[in-house]
Amino acid sequence: MGKIYKSLKSLSFFLNKQKKKKVGLCHGCFDIVHWGHILHFASSKRKCDILIVTVTADKYVNKGRNRPIFSDKERAMLLSGIKYIDGVYINSKNHAVSILKKIKPNFYFKGKEYQSRNQKINNNFFLEKNAAKKNNIKIIYTNDRTSSTTTAVNKLYNSSVTNKN
């Protein structure tokens, strides 16, 4: 079971003691964890010794009405129980730049949907990409099948609205 770190300082302290181990970072909302997330975490973990996942704080989740569905603390708790994840931290910023600079993981993992120069998923990724480059962090795009929490939530919502009529 992965540990939930309450501060970036405590996470950094833990990682500094892990000499010669490859550290990877995944960052995102992870509002409703689905099979695409699990494939992403499994692929990421195969490439590193320690996998850290950072969760976007509630106030920065901009995925639509009534989102996030689960609070950042609930999302962190769920993620900490996934066998591929060694540590979880709730990010207090709207991007992962400060985390990348502070913990300097060997790898920053993103899904293949982020690989395109024209990706419109998250504009903060361009800031994160620059921070990774400046700190010699290799970005690895996992090549797993993908899924979308937003699409699933919309599908459920539209299904419930249709069934009411």
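(the above was protein one; protein two follows)
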Amino acid sequence: MDKRSRLWILLATVTIVAVLVMVSAVFAFWLPFHGPGMPPYYLPGDIEFLYSAKAVLSSVNVALLAFLLITYLDIYRKTRSEFTIGLIVFSIIFMFYLLASNPLIIWAFGYRIFGLGPFTILPDIFTLAALIVLLYYVFKY
């Protein structure tokens, strides 16, 4: 598959992931929470937007990292380089970080996070920048 086709597949995948996660985040963070026998309550302030944005950024980062992991596995298959094994291990550990920090995963396990403000999404913005740099070099060569 040529670079142009891979790029279009990557962009389509990232777009689909972003839309699906945004819809899920609306149901998870913008609708009232309530437990058994408890009245519903709403999240305070702009926290709904921040956690929705974090969920989208984190999920897009997972999609980008999955693409990088597949690329690294293909490179390793061709070259058998030990450096590529390090990149594969880095990618897998980084994937665990992204999954563990995704608010939808946290919400699915019944936990809530409050009060971080813009620091909620800053790590994911930096992660996105790092992944874009890695992908730039994948498509450059």
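Reviewer note on protein two: The chain has five helices and no strands.
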